[in-house]
Protein backbone atom coordinates (compact mmCIF):
# COMPACT_ATOMS: atom_id res chain seq x y z
CA UNK A 1 0.00 0.00 0.00
CA UNK A 2 1.33 3.47 -0.91
CA UNK A 3 2.24 5.99 1.78
CA UNK A 4 -0.42 8.38 0.45
CA UNK A 5 -3.12 5.74 0.95
CA UNK A 6 -1.73 4.97 4.40
CA UNK A 7 -1.86 8.66 5.36
CA UNK A 8 -5.45 8.90 4.12
CA UNK A 9 -6.46 5.87 6.20
CA UNK A 10 -4.74 7.36 9.27
CA UNK A 11 -6.57 10.65 8.75
CA UNK A 12 -9.83 8.73 8.37
CA UNK A 13 -9.22 6.90 11.66
CA UNK A 14 -8.45 10.21 13.36
CA UNK A 15 -11.70 11.73 12.12
CA UNK A 16 -13.52 8.60 13.23
CA UNK A 17 -12.15 8.90 16.77
CA UNK A 18 -13.20 12.54 16.97
CA UNK A 19 -16.69 11.70 15.70
CA UNK A 20 -16.91 8.86 18.21
CA UNK A 21 -15.89 11.17 21.05
CA UNK A 22 -18.60 13.66 20.09
CA UNK A 23 -21.44 11.33 19.11
CA UNK A 24 -21.05 8.25 21.32
CA UNK A 25 -21.95 7.75 24.95
CA UNK A 26 -18.73 7.32 26.95
CA UNK A 27 -17.32 7.84 30.43
CA UNK A 28 -15.47 11.09 29.69
CA UNK A 29 -18.54 13.23 28.89
CA UNK A 30 -18.74 14.66 32.42
CA UNK A 31 -15.01 15.32 32.78
CA UNK A 32 -14.40 16.84 29.34
CA UNK A 33 -17.51 19.01 29.42
CA UNK A 34 -16.71 20.17 32.97
CA UNK A 35 -13.41 21.60 31.76
CA UNK A 36 -15.23 23.55 29.05
CA UNK A 37 -17.87 24.71 31.56
CA UNK A 38 -15.15 25.99 33.87
CA UNK A 39 -13.60 27.95 30.99
CA UNK A 40 -16.98 29.47 30.20
CA UNK A 41 -17.53 30.51 33.82
CA UNK A 42 -14.10 32.12 34.04
CA UNK A 43 -14.76 34.06 30.84
CA UNK A 44 -18.17 35.14 32.14
CA UNK A 45 -16.47 36.55 35.24
CA UNK A 46 -14.03 38.60 33.15
CA UNK A 47 -14.78 42.23 32.13
CA UNK A 48 -16.99 42.72 29.09
CA UNK A 49 -15.35 44.21 26.01
CA UNK A 50 -16.75 47.30 24.33
CA UNK A 51 -18.37 45.27 21.54
CA UNK A 52 -19.87 42.63 23.84
CA UNK A 53 -23.21 41.39 22.53
CA UNK A 54 -24.16 40.06 25.99
CA UNK A 55 -23.85 43.47 27.65
CA UNK A 56 -27.52 44.43 27.01
CA UNK A 57 -28.71 40.98 28.17
CA UNK A 58 -27.47 40.65 31.73
CA UNK A 59 -30.29 38.30 32.73
CA UNK A 60 -29.53 35.94 29.84
CA UNK A 61 -25.86 35.92 30.75
CA UNK A 62 -26.70 35.19 34.38
CA UNK A 63 -28.88 32.23 33.36
CA UNK A 64 -26.14 30.86 31.12
CA UNK A 65 -23.64 31.21 33.97
CA UNK A 66 -25.82 29.17 36.32
CA UNK A 67 -26.36 26.52 33.64
CA UNK A 68 -22.59 26.01 33.56
CA UNK A 69 -22.46 26.01 37.35
CA UNK A 70 -25.21 23.37 37.49
CA UNK A 71 -23.16 21.10 35.22
CA UNK A 72 -20.15 21.47 37.51
CA UNK A 73 -22.30 20.57 40.51
CA UNK A 74 -23.61 17.50 38.68
CA UNK A 75 -20.04 16.48 37.82
CA UNK A 76 -18.97 16.96 41.43
CA UNK A 77 -21.83 14.71 42.60
CA UNK A 78 -20.77 12.05 40.09
CA UNK A 79 -17.17 12.31 41.28
CA UNK A 80 -18.15 11.95 44.94
CA UNK A 81 -20.37 8.99 44.09
CA UNK A 82 -17.50 7.34 42.26
CA UNK A 83 -15.10 7.88 45.17
CA UNK A 84 -17.56 6.41 47.64
CA UNK A 85 -18.52 3.46 45.39
CA UNK A 86 -15.15 2.83 43.81
CA UNK A 87 -15.49 -0.91 43.33
CA UNK A 88 -19.17 -1.06 42.38
CA UNK A 89 -19.52 2.23 40.48
CA UNK A 90 -19.95 0.62 37.06
CA UNK A 91 -22.80 -1.57 38.36
CA UNK A 92 -24.75 0.69 40.73
CA UNK A 93 -24.09 4.28 39.62
CA UNK A 94 -27.09 5.98 37.98
CA UNK A 95 -24.74 7.92 35.73
CA UNK A 96 -23.66 4.82 33.79
CA UNK A 97 -27.11 3.63 32.79
CA UNK A 98 -27.75 3.85 29.03
CA UNK A 99 -30.53 6.40 29.34
CA UNK A 100 -28.54 8.59 31.73
CA UNK A 101 -25.42 8.45 29.55
CA UNK A 102 -27.42 9.47 26.51
CA UNK A 103 -29.06 12.33 28.42
CA UNK A 104 -25.67 13.51 29.69
CA UNK A 105 -24.27 13.53 26.17
CA UNK A 106 -27.17 15.66 24.91
CA UNK A 107 -26.78 18.02 27.86
CA UNK A 108 -23.06 18.27 27.14
CA UNK A 109 -23.89 19.76 23.74
CA UNK A 110 -25.83 22.50 25.51
CA UNK A 111 -22.92 23.18 27.87
CA UNK A 112 -20.44 23.40 25.02
CA UNK A 113 -22.76 25.77 23.15
CA UNK A 114 -23.08 28.01 26.22
CA UNK A 115 -19.32 28.02 26.79
CA UNK A 116 -18.72 28.88 23.14
CA UNK A 117 -21.11 31.81 23.50
CA UNK A 118 -18.87 33.19 26.25
CA UNK A 119 -15.77 32.51 24.14
CA UNK A 120 -17.29 34.48 21.29
CA UNK A 121 -18.38 37.33 23.56
CA UNK A 122 -15.25 37.70 25.64
CA UNK A 123 -12.43 36.47 23.37
CA UNK A 124 -13.59 37.14 19.82
CA UNK A 125 -15.40 40.38 20.55
CA UNK A 126 -12.60 41.39 22.92
CA UNK A 127 -10.12 41.04 20.08
CA UNK A 128 -12.47 42.95 17.77
CA UNK A 129 -12.80 45.75 20.34
CA UNK A 130 -9.04 45.99 20.77
CA UNK A 131 -8.55 46.00 16.99
CA UNK A 132 -11.11 48.78 16.59
CA UNK A 133 -9.35 50.94 19.15
CA UNK A 134 -5.88 50.14 17.74
CA UNK A 135 -6.75 51.04 14.16
CA UNK A 136 -8.50 54.30 15.05
CA UNK A 137 -6.25 55.64 17.84
CA UNK A 138 -4.13 58.63 16.92
CA UNK A 139 -1.63 57.99 19.73
CA UNK A 140 -0.28 54.87 21.31
CA UNK A 141 -2.78 53.38 23.78
CA UNK A 142 -1.08 52.42 27.01
CA UNK A 143 -3.97 51.03 29.01
CA UNK A 144 -4.15 47.46 27.70
CA UNK A 145 -1.50 45.05 26.41
CA UNK A 146 -3.54 43.59 23.54
CA UNK A 147 -4.61 47.02 22.28
CA UNK A 148 -1.03 48.26 22.51
CA UNK A 149 0.26 45.19 20.63
CA UNK A 150 -2.31 45.59 17.84
CA UNK A 151 -1.58 49.31 17.60
CA UNK A 152 2.13 48.64 17.16
CA UNK A 153 1.34 46.05 14.50
CA UNK A 154 -1.04 48.40 12.66
CA UNK A 155 1.25 51.41 12.70
CA UNK A 156 4.27 49.30 11.70
CA UNK A 157 2.48 47.12 9.15
CA UNK A 158 4.53 48.39 6.21
CA UNK A 159 7.73 47.59 8.09
CA UNK A 160 6.44 44.11 8.91
CA UNK A 161 5.40 43.56 5.28
CA UNK A 162 8.88 44.51 4.08
CA UNK A 163 10.37 42.05 6.55
CA UNK A 164 7.94 39.31 5.45
CA UNK A 165 8.79 39.81 1.77
CA UNK A 166 12.51 39.65 2.54
CA UNK A 167 12.14 36.53 4.70
CA UNK A 168 10.11 34.72 2.03
CA UNK A 169 12.54 35.75 -0.72
CA UNK A 170 15.56 34.57 1.27
CA UNK A 171 13.92 31.24 2.11
CA UNK A 172 12.50 30.48 -1.35
CA UNK A 173 15.37 31.64 -3.55
CA UNK A 174 17.99 30.39 -1.12
CA UNK A 175 16.42 26.92 -1.04
CA UNK A 176 16.09 26.74 -4.84
CA UNK A 177 19.69 27.82 -5.40
CA UNK A 178 20.88 25.41 -2.70
CA UNK A 179 19.05 22.53 -4.36
CA UNK A 180 20.97 22.87 -7.62
CA UNK A 181 24.27 23.38 -5.81
CA UNK A 182 23.51 20.33 -3.68
CA UNK A 183 22.88 18.25 -6.80
CA UNK A 184 26.34 19.20 -8.05
CA UNK A 185 28.06 18.57 -4.74
CA UNK A 186 26.30 15.28 -4.03
CA UNK A 187 27.41 14.05 -7.42
CA UNK A 188 30.99 14.88 -6.42
CA UNK A 189 30.45 13.41 -2.96
CA UNK A 190 29.37 9.95 -4.13
CA UNK A 191 31.95 9.55 -6.86
CA UNK A 192 33.90 6.31 -6.84
CA UNK A 193 36.99 5.59 -8.89
CA UNK A 194 36.05 3.31 -11.78
CA UNK A 195 38.41 0.92 -13.54
CA UNK A 196 38.13 2.59 -16.98
CA UNK A 197 39.01 6.00 -15.49
CA UNK A 198 42.31 7.53 -16.54
CA UNK A 199 44.58 9.38 -14.14
CA UNK A 200 43.06 12.78 -14.94
CA UNK A 201 39.50 11.59 -14.16
CA UNK A 202 40.64 9.75 -11.03
CA UNK A 203 42.35 12.91 -9.75
CA UNK A 204 39.27 15.08 -10.15
CA UNK A 205 37.00 12.47 -8.63
CA UNK A 206 39.18 12.32 -5.52
CA UNK A 207 39.41 16.12 -5.34
CA UNK A 208 35.67 16.59 -5.83
CA UNK A 209 34.77 14.01 -3.22
CA UNK A 210 37.21 15.49 -0.71
CA UNK A 211 35.97 19.03 -1.31
CA UNK A 212 32.35 17.97 -0.81
CA UNK A 213 33.20 16.20 2.46
CA UNK A 214 35.16 19.16 3.82
CA UNK A 215 32.46 21.62 2.72
CA UNK A 216 29.74 19.61 4.45
CA UNK A 217 31.77 19.30 7.64
CA UNK A 218 32.66 22.99 7.86
CA UNK A 219 29.24 24.41 7.00
CA UNK A 220 27.24 22.02 9.18
CA UNK A 221 29.70 22.50 12.03
CA UNK A 222 29.42 26.31 12.22
CA UNK A 223 26.39 28.53 12.99
CA UNK A 224 24.65 30.34 10.14
CA UNK A 225 24.97 33.65 11.99
CA UNK A 226 28.75 33.33 12.08
CA UNK A 227 28.80 32.29 8.43
CA UNK A 228 26.73 35.35 7.50
CA UNK A 229 29.10 37.70 9.32
CA UNK A 230 32.16 36.13 7.71
CA UNK A 231 30.63 36.27 4.23
CA UNK A 232 29.31 39.83 4.55
CA UNK A 233 32.19 41.54 6.33
CA UNK A 234 34.79 39.48 4.49
CA UNK A 235 33.56 40.60 1.08
CA UNK A 236 33.11 44.18 2.33
CA UNK A 237 36.72 44.23 3.49
CA UNK A 238 37.91 42.74 0.19
CA UNK A 239 36.01 45.33 -1.88
CA UNK A 240 37.27 48.19 0.24
CA UNK A 241 40.83 46.90 -0.09
CA UNK A 242 40.66 46.70 -3.89
CA UNK A 243 39.22 50.17 -4.58
CA UNK A 244 37.73 53.35 -3.23
CA UNK A 245 33.97 53.02 -2.87
CA UNK A 246 31.49 55.13 -1.02
CA UNK A 247 28.95 53.56 1.29
CA UNK A 248 26.17 53.80 -1.30
CA UNK A 249 28.34 52.27 -4.04
CA UNK A 250 29.44 49.47 -1.73
CA UNK A 251 25.83 48.74 -0.80
CA UNK A 252 24.91 48.45 -4.48
CA UNK A 253 27.75 46.02 -5.10
CA UNK A 254 27.36 43.95 -1.93
CA UNK A 255 24.15 44.66 -0.03
CA UNK A 256 23.13 42.85 3.17
CA UNK A 257 20.33 41.12 1.25
CA UNK A 258 22.74 39.66 -1.31
CA UNK A 259 25.08 38.55 1.47
CA UNK A 260 22.12 36.98 3.29
CA UNK A 261 20.98 35.16 0.15
CA UNK A 262 24.49 33.80 -0.40
CA UNK A 263 24.65 32.70 3.24
CA UNK A 264 21.29 30.89 3.15
CA UNK A 265 22.15 29.23 -0.17
CA UNK A 266 25.58 28.01 0.91
CA UNK A 267 24.33 26.87 4.31
CA UNK A 268 21.37 24.96 2.89
CA UNK A 269 23.56 23.38 0.22
CA UNK A 270 25.47 21.39 2.83
CA UNK A 271 22.32 20.04 4.50
CA UNK A 272 20.51 19.33 1.24
CA UNK A 273 23.59 17.54 -0.08
CA UNK A 274 23.51 15.18 2.88
CA UNK A 275 19.76 14.66 2.49
CA UNK A 276 20.25 13.80 -1.18
CA UNK A 277 23.11 11.48 -0.32
CA UNK A 278 20.91 9.69 2.19
CA UNK A 279 18.15 9.37 -0.41
CA UNK A 280 20.57 7.96 -2.96
CA UNK A 281 22.02 5.56 -0.40
CA UNK A 282 18.49 4.28 0.24
CA UNK A 283 18.20 3.15 -3.38
CA UNK A 284 18.81 -0.57 -3.72
CA UNK A 285 22.37 -1.23 -4.88
CA UNK A 286 20.98 -3.70 -7.36
CA UNK A 287 19.64 -0.75 -9.37
CA UNK A 288 23.16 0.42 -10.14
CA UNK A 289 24.39 -3.10 -10.85
CA UNK A 290 21.50 -3.75 -13.22
CA UNK A 291 22.12 -0.47 -15.05
CA UNK A 292 25.84 -1.20 -15.42
CA UNK A 293 25.10 -4.72 -16.65
CA UNK A 294 23.01 -3.19 -19.44
CA UNK A 295 26.03 -1.26 -20.65
CA UNK A 296 25.41 2.13 -19.03
CA UNK A 297 28.40 4.04 -17.75
CA UNK A 298 28.61 5.11 -14.12
CA UNK A 299 27.46 8.62 -15.04
CA UNK A 300 24.57 7.33 -17.16
CA UNK A 301 23.45 4.89 -14.47
CA UNK A 302 23.51 7.63 -11.84
CA UNK A 303 21.69 10.16 -14.03
CA UNK A 304 19.01 7.88 -15.45
CA UNK A 305 18.43 5.28 -12.72
CA UNK A 306 19.77 6.14 -9.27
CA UNK A 307 19.40 9.93 -9.13
CA UNK A 308 15.65 10.08 -9.95
CA UNK A 309 14.85 7.52 -7.24
CA UNK A 310 17.20 9.16 -4.75
CA UNK A 311 15.65 12.59 -5.29
CA UNK A 312 12.17 11.15 -4.76
CA UNK A 313 13.32 9.57 -1.49
CA UNK A 314 14.77 12.93 -0.44
CA UNK A 315 11.71 15.09 -1.14
CA UNK A 316 10.54 15.30 2.52
CA UNK A 317 13.96 16.38 3.79
CA UNK A 318 14.54 18.76 0.88
CA UNK A 319 11.18 20.46 1.29
CA UNK A 320 11.65 20.66 5.06
CA UNK A 321 14.73 22.80 4.41
CA UNK A 322 12.42 25.58 3.16
CA UNK A 323 10.63 25.67 6.53
CA UNK A 324 13.97 25.68 8.33
CA UNK A 325 15.21 28.59 6.19
CA UNK A 326 12.11 30.63 6.99
CA UNK A 327 13.03 30.40 10.68
CA UNK A 328 16.83 30.38 10.54
CA UNK A 329 17.07 33.39 8.22
CA UNK A 330 16.21 35.44 11.32
CA UNK A 331 19.87 35.34 12.38
CA UNK A 332 20.78 37.40 9.31
CA UNK A 333 19.35 40.47 11.00
CA UNK A 334 22.79 40.64 12.66
CA UNK A 335 24.23 41.84 9.34
CA UNK A 336 21.33 44.28 8.82
CA UNK A 337 19.27 42.13 6.46
CA UNK A 338 15.81 43.69 6.65
CA UNK A 339 13.96 40.46 7.37
CA UNK A 340 11.04 39.91 9.74
CA UNK A 341 13.26 39.83 12.84
CA UNK A 342 14.99 43.06 11.83
CA UNK A 343 11.57 44.63 11.24
CA UNK A 344 10.42 43.62 14.74
CA UNK A 345 13.60 45.02 16.25
CA UNK A 346 13.09 48.28 14.38
CA UNK A 347 9.49 48.68 15.53
CA UNK A 348 10.37 47.73 19.10
CA UNK A 349 13.16 50.30 19.10
CA UNK A 350 10.84 53.02 17.82
CA UNK A 351 8.49 52.60 20.80
CA UNK A 352 11.00 51.23 23.35
CA UNK A 353 8.73 48.19 23.69
CA UNK A 354 10.35 45.05 22.28
CA UNK A 355 8.14 42.31 23.72
CA UNK A 356 4.96 43.10 21.71
CA UNK A 357 6.99 43.65 18.54
CA UNK A 358 8.72 40.29 18.78
CA UNK A 359 5.47 38.59 19.81
CA UNK A 360 3.88 39.77 16.56
CA UNK A 361 6.92 38.49 14.65
CA UNK A 362 6.60 35.10 16.35
CA UNK A 363 2.95 34.82 15.27
CA UNK A 364 3.87 35.75 11.69
CA UNK A 365 6.69 33.18 11.64
CA UNK A 366 4.23 30.56 12.90
CA UNK A 367 1.76 31.42 10.13
CA UNK A 368 4.46 31.32 7.45
CA UNK A 369 5.86 27.97 8.57
CA UNK A 370 2.37 26.50 8.93
CA UNK A 371 1.46 27.51 5.38
CA UNK A 372 4.76 26.18 4.04
CA UNK A 373 4.36 22.91 5.94
CA UNK A 374 0.84 22.44 4.57
CA UNK A 375 1.88 23.12 0.98
CA UNK A 376 4.96 20.90 1.24
CA UNK A 377 2.90 18.10 2.78
CA UNK A 378 0.53 18.20 -0.17
CA UNK A 379 3.48 18.15 -2.55
CA UNK A 380 4.99 15.17 -0.76
CA UNK A 381 1.70 13.27 -0.99
CA UNK A 382 1.54 14.11 -4.70
CA UNK A 383 4.88 12.36 -5.17
CA UNK A 384 3.70 9.50 -2.94
CA UNK A 385 6.29 10.05 -0.21
CA UNK A 386 5.76 10.47 3.52
CA UNK A 387 6.18 14.07 4.78
CA UNK A 388 8.94 14.63 7.32
CA UNK A 389 7.99 16.18 10.68
CA UNK A 390 9.09 19.80 10.94
CA UNK A 391 11.22 20.99 13.81
CA UNK A 392 14.53 19.15 13.45
CA UNK A 393 17.45 19.88 11.20
CA UNK A 394 17.45 18.79 7.61
CA UNK A 395 20.06 16.10 8.06
CA UNK A 396 18.21 14.20 10.78
CA UNK A 397 17.26 10.71 9.82
CA UNK A 398 19.80 10.63 7.06
CA UNK A 399 22.83 8.97 7.55
CA UNK A 400 22.75 5.53 6.05
CA UNK A 401 25.74 5.92 3.68
CA UNK A 402 27.78 8.10 6.05
CA UNK A 403 31.45 7.41 5.64
TrEMBL record:
<keyword id="KW-0812">Transmembrane</keyword>
<keyword id="KW-0472">Membrane</keyword>
<dbReference type="Pfam" id="PF00528">
    <property type="entry name" value="BPD_transp_1"/>
</dbReference>
<keyword id="KW-1133">Transmembrane helix</keyword>
<feature type="transmembrane region" description="Helical">
    <location>
        <begin position="27"/>
        <end position="43"/>
    </location>
</feature>
<keyword id="KW-0029">Amino-acid transport</keyword>
<dbReference type="InterPro" id="IPR043429">
    <property type="entry name" value="ArtM/GltK/GlnP/TcyL/YhdX-like"/>
</dbReference>
<keyword id="KW-0813">Transport</keyword>
<comment type="similarity">
    <text>Belongs to the binding-protein-dependent transport system permease family. HisMQ subfamily.</text>
</comment>
<feature type="transmembrane region" description="Helical">
    <location>
        <begin position="160"/>
        <end position="187"/>
    </location>
</feature>
<feature type="domain" description="ABC transmembrane type-1">
    <location>
        <begin position="164"/>
        <end position="376"/>
    </location>
</feature>
<dbReference type="InterPro" id="IPR000515">
    <property type="entry name" value="MetI-like"/>
</dbReference>
<protein>
    <submittedName>
        <fullName>Amino acid ABC transporter permease</fullName>
    </submittedName>
</protein>
<feature type="transmembrane region" description="Helical">
    <location>
        <begin position="253"/>
        <end position="273"/>
    </location>
</feature>
<feature type="transmembrane region" description="Helical">
    <location>
        <begin position="354"/>
        <end position="376"/>
    </location>
</feature>
<feature type="transmembrane region" description="Helical">
    <location>
        <begin position="103"/>
        <end position="120"/>
    </location>
</feature>
<dbReference type="InterPro" id="IPR035906">
    <property type="entry name" value="MetI-like_sf"/>
</dbReference>
<feature type="transmembrane region" description="Helical">
    <location>
        <begin position="63"/>
        <end position="83"/>
    </location>
</feature>
Amino acid sequence: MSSAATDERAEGRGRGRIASFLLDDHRYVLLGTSAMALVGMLLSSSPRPALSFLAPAFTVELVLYYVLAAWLVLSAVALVYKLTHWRTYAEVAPFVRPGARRALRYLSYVIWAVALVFVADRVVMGFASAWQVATTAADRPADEFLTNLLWMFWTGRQTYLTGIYTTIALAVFGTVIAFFLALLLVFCRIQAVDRPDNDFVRFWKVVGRGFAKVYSTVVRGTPMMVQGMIIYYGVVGFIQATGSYSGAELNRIWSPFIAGLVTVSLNSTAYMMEVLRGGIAAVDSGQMEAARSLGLSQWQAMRKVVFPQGIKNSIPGLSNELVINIKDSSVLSMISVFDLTFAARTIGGNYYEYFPAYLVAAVIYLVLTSIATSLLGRGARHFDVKPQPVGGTADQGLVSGEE
